[in-house]
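thread from #wetlab-drylab

HS: before we spend reagent money on co-crystallization trials with NDP, can we at least see a predicted complex? here's what I'd submit
DV: go for it
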Amino acid sequence: MSEVTTVSAPDADEFTLLHRVQAPEGEGREILDAATREVIGRAPVRTITDLDEAVTRAKAAQPAWEERGHEERSALLLKAADAIDAHAEELARLLSREQGKPLNGPNARFEVGGCAAWLRASATTPLQPEVVVDDGETHAELHYRAVGVVGAIGPWNWPLMITIWQIGPALRMGNTVVVKPSENTPLSVLALLSVLNEVLPADVLTGVPGDGAVGARLASHPDVGKVMFTGSTATGRKIVEGSAGNFARLTLELGGNDAGIVLPGADPRAIAQDLFWGAFINTGQTCAALKRLYVHDSIYEDVVSALRDVAAEMPMGNGLDEKNVLGPLQNQQQFDIVSRLVEEARANGGRIVTGGAPAPELGELFYPVTLVADVTDGVAIVDEEQFGPVLPIVRYTDVEDAITSANRLDVGLGASVWGDRDEARKVAFRLQAGTVWINSHGGVHPMAPFGGVKGSGYGLEFGVEGLKSVAVPLVING
Ligand code: NDP
């Protein structure tokens, strides 16, 4: 782990976006830099009345937006992606400070670049009507059109990327969108929306920063026809309950506890780097990160030591320091969860291979990369989502047991299998998860559908399936 060094001075434009979106002097809620805990700005605080007004305006703006047609909307969304590129460094720096993720590594600059890439994919993915029956007697076509107003409720871990995942397809399909960002990362989301609104017509895309009650109102609002939600399983459950009132269609991307299975015969040194980033991308604060690793007894110690060696090379610290690739936990709540789980693991016989205690010398919310060996199913660090820089490593001798372990929890977002590709594919088909990666973990692609099973939610994002999920079908028969 590195020491904190001097970070680069902000450039003159860095605070332009911040000033555009933050609350007027003396108003709003203080937002802290995740690494230094200094105030970086003040988030506006909106109420349920503000939310209702935003939905009313979005509803009024929707028909004209839909009437523009796919071609015109696509052209505007491509311009919006260019606007993200034009503000990329400002967005990345604000994101880095508010969320904590470093500029470099698979972090803030990567996230902002991903926003532009995903928006372009949403803008250009073709979605043609399908002729579903044409047998001489019946001619039936399946068309897709806008739902109306879409509500987008997002988390704090990948706040910009997930916002784009939620709003890009929705806008492309002719919906207008109201966004409720997480209270932990409102400024960077509002900055992103402000950049997109340099291009989009008024009221097509609105951000309403507020608390959970504002989110609950958005999800259950009678004029909202679709809710895109990413966050905890507990909140997802409340949104399902709320949807009994408005019959909103839902896409729920909830928490996970992704298992990885390393098969006998895998090469520990060859896979260590990819295992590391599968688990520790965004300092472990990623829904589809590798959160429990099952390793065959024959190579167990070799995998543990290869991972330890990779971890030792990864600098952690202030995100604005160009050399860092790991940052702090974003908030105190998450820091406390991680600390508790490591302490419980230690008390239950877990062997701390590296890390294992907070790193206050780096800052209040820093927790070093922690590898916990010799733990078993049933210990909290294995059974609960840690959502931080900690990886439990469980030993197995029979691959059947590893499959049973991987499937035994009530969540199923992702999973991975490491080793011979053919063997790994056989195991993959037996895992209960929305995505199973072979010899990697967590990589997403704008054309590959993404979504969970069991308590990790339902509905697909990305690609053609993602466009369909923010549309209502219309069958023309005759
Ligand atoms: P939450 O589910 O509490 O928050 C996600 C979003 O939902 C936030 O914008 C939040 O607003 C909003 N919200 C809160 N209550 C309601 C409600 N009743 N109706 C509608 N929206 C609501 O997640 P947290 O951020 O608190 O994180 C808790 C846990 O969730 C983490 O420890 C992690 O396990 C998991 N998580 C999973 C993520 C993923 O990508 N799948 C991302 C982040 C967290 P507000 O911020 O104002 O409370």
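DV: Residues 258-445 form a domain with the Aldehyde Dehydrogenase; Chain A, domain 2 fold (CATH 3.40.309.10).
HS: ok that's useful, forwarding to the group
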